[in-house]
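Q: You know discrete backbone vocabularies at least as well as I do. I have my own habits and do not want them to colour yours. No explanation is needed for now; the record alone will do.
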Amino acid sequence: MVKRKVTFTLDEATLASLARSARRLDQPKSQVVRDAIREYGHRIGKLGEAERLRLLRVFDEVVPRIPERPGAEVEKELRAVREARRSGGGRTRADGQA
């Protein structure tokens, strides 16, 4: 792996945290930074714990509201919807004319 020297500006608290982490891990600071960036990159796009728990609560709230119907009834409704779409799905007037 080719390595390049780069410069970043960090605040004192971050530098202190980096130094503590490097000592605890017995690794160079640059390795700690590489590992931290790699780990952060893996987490991007994944849900945080709070968001995951919120979505699970929503799921637990919504799923019981799904009505239970026989499969044949659902299939009949789906056929009717498909047929309406194929025929244009236009509304009819109360007197039965289009």
Q: What stands out?
A: Helices lie at 12-25, 29-43, 49-62, 71-86. Residues 54 and 60 are 10 Å apart (CA to CA). The chain has one domain: 12-86.
